Each structure stands twice: as C-alpha cells, then as structure tokens.
C-alpha cells in the first residue's frame, strides 16, 4: 500500500472539495411559493442571497411567516441536495475507498 501516494491523493481531493465549495457559492437555487408571492434565492452553500415579498403578503403577518418558513425550508432542502451531490461526486471520483473514511468529508 503506497501511503505517500494515498496522502497526496487525499490532499488533492481535499483541494477539489474546497474548490467545489467555492463554486457552490455561485450556484443559485431559486424557490418560490406556489402563487409566486414570495421568492427566495440562495446559494448551494445555503447562504440567502435575496428575498422578494409581494406587497399583498405584508398585510397578513401570519401568512407571511408561514410562507417564509415553507419557502425557505424548500430552498434549503434543494440547496442541501445540490451541495451533497456535488461534494459526494468529488469524493467518490477521487478517493480510494478506505473503510471508515467515507464519513470524513461530511
């Protein structure tokens, strides 16, 4: 077993993961309520970039709060799936499978 080669590969993979995380800052996830009154954009790293609220929602605080929770949760779920899929792809592509190492990058 070539330990030096594996360590080099590990470093290379960590760099690719860092590069992927940086790139995910530029991947935008758009989500909106079914009626389009509330729109949210966040990065695949789950940073909120914008929230657009239709004026009609400003008249009903409770409805606005419900919309915020629903739309943000949906957007975060989509962003998380995108994030995990991208990072898993990098890890699977580059990593020699070492038992117990598969949780290292989670």
TrEMBL record:
Any one Gene Ontology cellular component term annotated for this protein: bacterial nucleoid
Coiled-coil spans in chain: 3-30
Coiled coil listed as a keyword: yes
Top-rank lineage group of the source organism: Bacteria
Keyword Transmembrane helix (UniProt): no
Keyword field: Coiled coil, Cytoplasm, DNA-binding
Subcellular location: Cytoplasm, Nucleoid
Gene Ontology MF annotations: DNA binding
Gene3D superfamilies assigned: Nucleoid-associated protein YbaB-like domain (3.30.1310.10)
Main location: cytoplasm
Assembly notes: Homodimer.
Family stated for the protein in its record: Belongs to the YbaB/EbfC family.
Function: Binds to DNA and alters its conformation. May be involved in regulation of gene expression, nucleoid organization and DNA protection.
NCBIfam families: DNA_YbaB_EbfC
The protein, known as: Nucleoid-associated protein SAMN05444372_1035
Organism: Flavobacterium micromati
Classification lineage: Bacteria, Pseudomonadati, Bacteroidota, Flavobacteriia, Flavobacteriales
């Amino acid at each position: 077993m070539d330990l030096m080669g594996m360590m080099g590969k590990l470093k290379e993979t960590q760099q690719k993961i860092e590069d992927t995380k940086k790139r995910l800052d530029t991947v935008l996830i758009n989500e909106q309520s079914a009626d389009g009154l509330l729109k949210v954009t966040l990065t695949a790293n789950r940073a909120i970039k914008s929230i657009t609220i239709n004026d009609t929602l400003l008249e009903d605080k409770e409805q606005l709060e419900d919309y915020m929770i629903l739309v943000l949760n949906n957007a975060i779920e989509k962003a998380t799936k995108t994030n995990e899929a991208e990072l898993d792809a990098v890890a699977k592509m580059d990593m020699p499978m070492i038992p117990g190492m598969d949780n290292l990058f989670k």
